[in-house]
Amino acid sequence: MNLQLFYPSLKLQSYIKCYYLSESDYTDYVKDVFYADGCVEVVFHIGLDFYRDEEKECWAKVIGQITQPLTMKAKGRGRSFGIWFWPHTFSLFSDFSVNVLNDKAIALDNVFNQTFIDFVRNSMHENDIESLVRETNSCLLKKLKVPVNPLKERIAAHAVQYIVNEKNNSNLDKLVSECNISNRYLQKMFLERIGFSPKFFIRITRFQRALHYVVNCQTDSLTNLAHQAGYYDQAHFIREFKEFTGISPSQFRLTGHPINQYFLSL
Question: Are 68 and 245 in contact (CB under 8 A)?
């Protein structure tokens, strides 16, 4: 698989992490497992079929937050175009409470208009990537909602950035005090905007850091990896890694990821 990354316009960079375009050729069915990364994606597939629980997914879809290991199968020769949102931003482009999308994929025409969906299909067929990125920027800017409560948006962005920066050292009592909100308000905001509680988001952030070390630091001991990722000890690290992947770190290193390997280090 070949993978290219593209970055959104300056006005969208606080809402969109990146766009990606991949080319794949799977003569036979290829199976892979995907893990929680804290983000919602919009994905288009041309010439490729993806299956979840033996059921073929829509070619243009919204993939909600992944909270448990997701096994997928793919077959075909074609392209995928993806829009990768920051953890708290997808709800600014839709009317969905993000938590209803957890561990699900829904057809994109529930969120985006058919004109844009058709344009993406045609651009991918014609290999007109410049127009694809430009029109995606334009569509998202038009779809971006004016916040009803700008203060709430600033709090959501601050809370996410705080946890991403602090990771295992995140102090939620300190966070709510800084934002002058209650713990209950923070919980409700996270469920609506991100899909789960702040504590679960902390766990995902820590897991993603651990996953990065497991993928990129093959020679380090599990004890060193546990400490670098912010876990109390090796046992805590292994237990939580298993919760998010279904296997131990050592088993993970022996497992191939024919599709996901290109995204694990992003």
Answer: no
Total number of residues shown for the chain? 266
User: 30-80, pLDDT tens digit by residue?
Assistant: 999 999 999 999 999 999 999 999 999 999 999 999 999 999 999 999 999
C-alpha span between 195 and 62 (Å, rounded)? 14
Helix or strand or coil: residue 98? helix
Distance in angstroms (rounded) separating the CA atoms of residues 206 and 237: 10
For the chain, helix, strand, coil in percent to 5 are: 50, 25, 30
- Integer Cα distance of 209 and 86 in angstroms: 16
- pTM, entire model: 0.93
Phi then psi for 230, rounded to 5 degrees? 100, 20
- Tokens (6 digits) for 64: 């909600």
Q: Cβ(38)–Cβ(205) under 8 Å?
A: yes
Instruction: List, in sequence order, every residue forming a beta bridge with 46; answer none if it has no partner.
Output: 79
Cβ(75)–Cβ(26) below 8 Å: yes
SS3 209: helix
DSSP letter at 220?
S
| pLDDT tens track for 69-91 | 999 999 999 999 999 999 999 99
Q: Which two tokens stand for residue 166?
A: 């602090």
Taken in order of first residue, the domains within the chain and their CATH numbers are: 2-143 (2.60.120), 149-258 (1.10.10.60)
Q: What are 79's two structure tokens?
A: 């392209």
